[in-house]
Amino acid sequence: MKKGLLAVVFIFFQIFSISAITFERPEQFxxxxxxxxxxxGTERNTTLYSIEYGVNGKKYNGLLGVxxxxxxxxxxxxxxxxPSISTWKFYTRTLxxxxxxxxxxxxxxxxxxxxxxxxxxxxxxxxKKNFIFTxxxxxxxxxxxxYALSNNSYAWNKNAVISIKFEKLFxxxxxLSLTGSSYSFYRYALFIxxxxxxxxxxxxxxxxRFGGEFTLGFSDQYTTAPYVNTLQFRLTARYTF
Length: 241
Fold this sequence. Notes:
Elements: H1 2-21, E1 27-37, E2 47-56, E3 60-68, E4 72-81, E5 87-90, E6 93-108, E7 112-127, E8 131-146, E9 155-169, E10 174-181, E11 195-203, E12 208-218, E13 228-240
Antiparallel strand pairs: 1-2, 1-13, 2-3, 3-4, 4-6, 5-6, 6-7, 7-8, 8-9, 9-10, 10-11, 11-12, 12-13
Protein backbone atom coordinates (compact mmCIF):
# COMPACT_ATOMS: atom_id res chain seq x y z
CA MET A 1 0.00 0.00 0.00
CA LYS A 2 2.85 2.39 0.85
CA LYS A 3 4.56 1.84 -2.53
CA GLY A 4 1.31 2.56 -4.39
CA LEU A 5 0.67 5.74 -2.41
CA LEU A 6 4.24 6.97 -2.93
CA ALA A 7 3.94 6.38 -6.68
CA VAL A 8 0.75 8.45 -6.82
CA VAL A 9 2.32 11.30 -4.83
CA PHE A 10 5.39 11.29 -7.11
CA ILE A 11 3.27 11.50 -10.29
CA PHE A 12 1.15 14.26 -8.80
CA PHE A 13 4.33 16.22 -7.95
CA GLN A 14 5.16 16.23 -11.65
CA ILE A 15 2.03 18.26 -12.32
CA PHE A 16 3.41 21.06 -10.18
CA SER A 17 6.71 20.79 -12.05
CA ILE A 18 4.88 21.32 -15.34
CA SER A 19 2.97 24.31 -13.98
CA ALA A 20 6.21 25.84 -12.70
CA ILE A 21 7.92 25.42 -16.09
CA THR A 22 5.00 27.04 -17.91
CA PHE A 23 4.77 29.83 -15.29
CA GLU A 24 1.11 29.04 -14.84
CA ARG A 25 -0.53 29.17 -11.44
CA PRO A 26 -3.19 26.49 -11.61
CA GLU A 27 -6.56 26.67 -9.92
CA GLN A 28 -6.47 24.39 -6.89
CA PHE A 29 -9.16 22.91 -4.70
CA UNK A 30 -9.71 20.68 -1.70
CA UNK A 31 -12.89 18.62 -1.43
CA UNK A 32 -14.34 16.45 1.34
CA UNK A 33 -17.10 13.93 0.64
CA UNK A 34 -19.41 11.55 2.43
CA UNK A 35 -21.15 8.75 0.54
CA UNK A 36 -23.95 6.48 1.71
CA UNK A 37 -24.55 3.20 -0.09
CA UNK A 38 -27.97 1.56 -0.21
CA UNK A 39 -29.04 -2.00 0.57
CA UNK A 40 -27.95 -3.46 -2.79
CA GLY A 41 -24.61 -4.87 -3.87
CA THR A 42 -21.37 -5.96 -2.25
CA GLU A 43 -20.90 -2.72 -0.29
CA ARG A 44 -24.44 -2.44 1.02
CA ASN A 45 -25.33 -0.13 3.91
CA THR A 46 -21.84 1.39 4.01
CA THR A 47 -20.74 4.96 4.71
CA LEU A 48 -17.61 6.12 2.86
CA TYR A 49 -15.48 9.16 3.64
CA SER A 50 -13.06 10.75 1.19
CA ILE A 51 -10.89 13.78 0.60
CA GLU A 52 -9.46 15.00 -2.70
CA TYR A 53 -6.95 17.59 -3.82
CA GLY A 54 -7.03 18.83 -7.41
CA VAL A 55 -5.36 21.26 -9.80
CA ASN A 56 -6.87 22.70 -12.98
CA GLY A 57 -4.66 24.43 -15.52
CA LYS A 58 -5.46 25.68 -19.01
CA LYS A 59 -4.01 22.54 -20.64
CA TYR A 60 -4.03 19.99 -17.84
CA ASN A 61 -5.75 18.87 -14.68
CA GLY A 62 -4.98 16.41 -11.92
CA LEU A 63 -6.80 14.84 -9.01
CA LEU A 64 -5.48 12.89 -6.02
CA GLY A 65 -7.72 11.40 -3.35
CA VAL A 66 -8.20 8.86 -0.60
CA UNK A 67 -11.37 7.11 0.51
CA UNK A 68 -11.95 4.91 3.52
CA UNK A 69 -14.49 3.14 5.66
CA UNK A 70 -14.25 0.50 8.36
CA UNK A 71 -13.09 -2.29 6.03
CA UNK A 72 -11.68 -0.67 2.87
CA UNK A 73 -9.02 1.91 2.00
CA UNK A 74 -8.63 3.44 -1.48
CA UNK A 75 -6.24 5.90 -3.04
CA UNK A 76 -6.67 7.11 -6.59
CA UNK A 77 -4.99 9.48 -9.02
CA UNK A 78 -5.88 10.87 -12.43
CA UNK A 79 -4.22 13.40 -14.77
CA UNK A 80 -5.25 14.77 -18.16
CA UNK A 81 -3.27 16.84 -20.65
CA UNK A 82 -4.62 18.72 -23.68
CA PRO A 83 -1.81 19.94 -26.00
CA SER A 84 -2.31 23.21 -27.84
CA ILE A 85 -1.73 21.44 -31.14
CA SER A 86 -4.91 19.38 -30.65
CA THR A 87 -7.21 22.23 -29.60
CA TRP A 88 -9.44 23.91 -32.16
CA LYS A 89 -11.95 26.75 -31.90
CA PHE A 90 -15.08 26.85 -34.06
CA TYR A 91 -17.03 30.07 -33.55
CA THR A 92 -18.47 29.64 -30.03
CA ARG A 93 -17.16 26.10 -29.49
CA THR A 94 -13.78 24.71 -28.46
CA LEU A 95 -12.80 21.11 -29.21
CA UNK A 96 -9.83 19.59 -27.38
CA UNK A 97 -8.29 16.15 -27.80
CA UNK A 98 -5.87 14.96 -25.17
CA UNK A 99 -4.69 11.99 -23.19
CA UNK A 100 -4.87 10.93 -19.58
CA UNK A 101 -3.66 8.38 -17.05
CA UNK A 102 -5.30 6.88 -13.98
CA UNK A 103 -4.01 4.78 -11.10
CA UNK A 104 -6.00 3.24 -8.26
CA UNK A 105 -5.11 1.11 -5.25
CA UNK A 106 -7.66 -0.61 -3.02
CA UNK A 107 -7.07 -2.60 0.15
CA UNK A 108 -9.73 -4.76 1.79
CA UNK A 109 -8.08 -5.06 5.19
CA UNK A 110 -6.72 -8.59 5.81
CA UNK A 111 -8.70 -9.93 2.80
CA UNK A 112 -7.41 -8.73 -0.58
CA UNK A 113 -5.96 -5.81 -2.52
CA UNK A 114 -5.97 -4.62 -6.12
CA UNK A 115 -4.19 -2.20 -8.43
CA UNK A 116 -5.73 -0.55 -11.51
CA UNK A 117 -3.84 1.47 -14.13
CA UNK A 118 -5.16 3.00 -17.36
CA UNK A 119 -4.12 5.16 -20.30
CA UNK A 120 -6.89 7.11 -22.01
CA UNK A 121 -7.78 9.34 -24.92
CA UNK A 122 -10.01 12.30 -24.04
CA UNK A 123 -12.33 14.41 -26.16
CA UNK A 124 -13.80 17.62 -24.75
CA UNK A 125 -16.23 20.03 -26.39
CA UNK A 126 -17.03 23.30 -24.63
CA UNK A 127 -19.40 26.03 -25.80
CA LYS A 128 -19.42 29.73 -24.98
CA LYS A 129 -22.49 29.17 -22.80
CA ASN A 130 -20.52 26.74 -20.61
CA PHE A 131 -21.99 23.49 -21.84
CA ILE A 132 -19.30 20.81 -21.68
CA PHE A 133 -19.33 17.38 -23.30
CA THR A 134 -16.53 14.97 -22.40
CA UNK A 135 -15.83 11.52 -23.81
CA UNK A 136 -13.07 9.27 -22.47
CA UNK A 137 -12.00 5.78 -23.42
CA UNK A 138 -8.94 3.78 -22.51
CA UNK A 139 -7.23 0.48 -21.82
CA UNK A 140 -5.38 -0.79 -18.80
CA UNK A 141 -4.74 -3.60 -16.38
CA UNK A 142 -6.11 -4.86 -13.09
CA UNK A 143 -3.96 -6.83 -10.64
CA UNK A 144 -5.63 -8.43 -7.63
CA UNK A 145 -4.30 -10.54 -4.77
CA UNK A 146 -6.15 -12.56 -2.12
CA TYR A 147 -4.09 -12.73 1.06
CA ALA A 148 -5.43 -16.13 2.14
CA LEU A 149 -4.16 -17.97 -0.97
CA SER A 150 -1.04 -20.01 -0.39
CA ASN A 151 0.90 -18.69 -3.41
CA ASN A 152 0.02 -15.09 -2.48
CA SER A 153 0.51 -13.94 -6.09
CA TYR A 154 -1.39 -11.44 -8.21
CA ALA A 155 -4.04 -12.35 -10.77
CA TRP A 156 -3.79 -10.11 -13.84
CA ASN A 157 -6.60 -9.00 -16.14
CA LYS A 158 -6.81 -6.63 -19.07
CA ASN A 159 -9.48 -3.99 -18.61
CA ALA A 160 -11.09 -1.07 -20.42
CA VAL A 161 -12.84 2.13 -19.37
CA ILE A 162 -15.32 4.42 -21.06
CA SER A 163 -17.11 7.55 -19.89
CA ILE A 164 -19.56 10.07 -21.35
CA LYS A 165 -20.32 13.22 -19.37
CA PHE A 166 -22.59 16.23 -19.95
CA GLU A 167 -22.12 19.36 -17.81
CA LYS A 168 -23.87 22.70 -17.71
CA LEU A 169 -22.50 25.65 -15.73
CA PHE A 170 -24.99 28.46 -15.20
CA UNK A 171 -24.09 32.09 -14.59
CA UNK A 172 -25.92 32.07 -11.24
CA UNK A 173 -23.51 29.44 -9.86
CA UNK A 174 -25.57 26.30 -10.41
CA UNK A 175 -23.94 23.21 -11.95
CA LEU A 176 -25.74 20.18 -13.39
CA SER A 177 -24.11 17.01 -14.70
CA LEU A 178 -25.08 13.63 -16.11
CA THR A 179 -22.51 10.84 -16.49
CA GLY A 180 -22.60 7.35 -17.95
CA SER A 181 -19.41 5.46 -17.17
CA SER A 182 -17.87 2.05 -16.60
CA TYR A 183 -15.96 3.30 -13.54
CA SER A 184 -15.84 5.90 -10.79
CA PHE A 185 -12.82 7.60 -9.24
CA TYR A 186 -12.55 4.91 -6.54
CA ARG A 187 -14.20 1.91 -8.23
CA TYR A 188 -12.94 0.09 -11.36
CA ALA A 189 -14.95 -3.04 -12.10
CA LEU A 190 -14.06 -5.28 -15.01
CA PHE A 191 -15.56 -3.97 -18.25
CA ILE A 192 -18.44 -3.38 -18.48
CA UNK A 193 -20.46 -2.65 -15.35
CA UNK A 194 -22.07 0.71 -16.13
CA UNK A 195 -22.74 3.46 -13.63
CA UNK A 196 -25.12 6.37 -14.19
CA UNK A 197 -24.63 9.48 -12.09
CA UNK A 198 -26.67 12.69 -11.79
CA UNK A 199 -25.03 15.59 -9.97
CA UNK A 200 -25.97 19.10 -8.91
CA UNK A 201 -23.94 21.77 -7.14
CA UNK A 202 -23.95 25.44 -6.23
CA UNK A 203 -20.92 27.74 -6.27
CA UNK A 204 -20.81 30.50 -3.67
CA UNK A 205 -18.68 33.63 -3.77
CA UNK A 206 -15.27 33.11 -2.25
CA UNK A 207 -14.59 29.67 -3.74
CA UNK A 208 -17.04 27.54 -1.74
CA ARG A 209 -19.00 24.85 -3.54
CA PHE A 210 -21.55 22.40 -2.16
CA GLY A 211 -22.98 19.55 -4.21
CA GLY A 212 -24.69 16.21 -4.26
CA GLU A 213 -24.75 13.15 -6.52
CA PHE A 214 -26.91 10.09 -6.98
CA THR A 215 -25.35 7.04 -8.65
CA LEU A 216 -27.08 3.93 -9.96
CA GLY A 217 -24.66 1.11 -10.82
CA PHE A 218 -25.21 -2.24 -12.56
CA SER A 219 -23.17 -5.41 -12.29
CA ASP A 220 -24.02 -6.13 -15.92
CA GLN A 221 -26.36 -4.69 -18.53
CA TYR A 222 -25.45 -6.29 -21.83
CA THR A 223 -24.61 -9.99 -21.58
CA THR A 224 -27.24 -10.76 -18.92
CA ALA A 225 -30.31 -9.09 -17.44
CA PRO A 226 -29.41 -5.85 -15.64
CA TYR A 227 -28.86 -6.16 -11.88
CA VAL A 228 -28.65 -3.06 -9.70
CA ASN A 229 -25.43 -3.44 -7.72
CA THR A 230 -24.92 0.11 -6.45
CA LEU A 231 -27.17 2.79 -4.99
CA GLN A 232 -25.03 5.67 -3.81
CA PHE A 233 -25.81 9.11 -2.40
CA ARG A 234 -22.84 11.50 -2.14
CA LEU A 235 -22.52 14.94 -0.57
CA THR A 236 -19.50 17.16 -1.32
CA ALA A 237 -17.97 20.36 0.02
CA ARG A 238 -15.20 22.07 -1.96
CA TYR A 239 -12.97 25.08 -1.46
CA THR A 240 -11.18 26.51 -4.51
CA PHE A 241 -8.18 28.81 -4.20
